[in-house]
Amino acid sequence: MLLKYITVYGLSLINLYSYGLQDKKLPSFLKVCHRNDSDLNECVKRSIENLRPLLSKGIPEFNIPSCEPLQIPEVVIDQGAGPVSVKSTYSGVRVYGPSKFELKSIKIDLDKDKVRLKLWLPRLELSCHYSMEGRILMMPITGSGNSTGNYTNIDVTVVIQNQRILKDGETYLNVKDFYVDFNIGHASVRLENLFNGDQELGEAMNLFLNENWKSVANEIKPVLEDTIASIFKRFANKIFHKYQLNVLLPP
């Protein structure tokens, strides 16, 4: 769930600017990058960095809402097998810190329509309402209530493979494949009202989760990565399918 929040802001901006989004009335804060720029990668990187201060209030011109906090209506995770097998729903999610991301590097291959980038976030804080049932490292878990989480030192590597498609006689970009790999330096979570409010069992489970957060994260990592890929492909394609390639990527 955590990486979804990273993706929505860091990667949405990268897809906008890695292809130099252009409009008839460009906002004054937007630096457009062209395909013939001598150093396209650095141009895109600077464009994203120029936008970062605006993220706390949002960028309505690009339908990017305020991200401090970032509000997500609902996230569902269904991990049906393995040491971590849980069905969980998170609603009213509020995430603090996504605008603090740092774009470490970006590499755009125009010939192959591929983008590779690295992001880093110092800290994300999360609060939401959760509902969960299943087993974590063979320990049964069930509960529904408020939840908080703190995640620090987050490294993210992303590879986006685009393709060119024809629509109404015009060429558009389409996200074909999306790959993400992430590493969290440290995480702590707290789930209230576990086991129907049994205080002793709830405290024991919270202690267990925090002592074993790396093992839990490693088990659900593939599910998170697949979920992120699906969400981001839909998000990016809404942009790419709206603007022709020659508009998104001016000479």
Describe the protein's topology.
Blueprint: H1 2-17, H2 40-51, E1 70-79, E2 84-96, E3 102-109, E4 114-136, E5 139-167, E6 170-191, H3 199-211, H4 213-240, H5 245-248
Antiparallel strand pairs: 1-2, 2-4, 3-4, 4-5, 5-6
Structure description:
The protein is of the alpha+beta class and 251 residues long. Helix content is 29%, strand content 42%. The chain contains 5 helices and 6 strands, in the order ααββββββααα. It has helices spanning 2-17, 40-51, 199-211, 213-240, 245-248, and strands at residues 70-79, 84-96, 102-109, 114-136, 139-167, 170-191. Strands 1, 2, 3, 4, 5 and 6 form a 6-stranded antiparallel β-sheet that branches. α1 (2-17) packs parallel to α4 (213-240). The longest helix is centred in the C-terminal third of the chain and has 28 residues, at 213-240. The two termini are 38 Å apart. Mean pLDDT is 82; it is low at 18-25.
Overall 3D form? elongated
User: Percentage of helical residues?
Assistant: 25-40%
Mean pLDDT: 82
Q: Approximately what portion of the residues adopt beta-strand conformation? A: 35-45%
Find the count of extended strands (DSSP E, 2+ residues).
6
Q: Which residues form runs of ≥5 with pLDDT under 50?
A: 18-25
Total helical elements: 5
SS-based class: alpha+beta
Compute the CA-based radius of gyration. 20 Å
Ends apart, CA distance between termini: 38 Å
Main sheet attributes: strand count, strand direction, barrel closure: 6 strands, antiparallel
> What series of H and E elements makes up the topology?
HHEEEEEEHHH
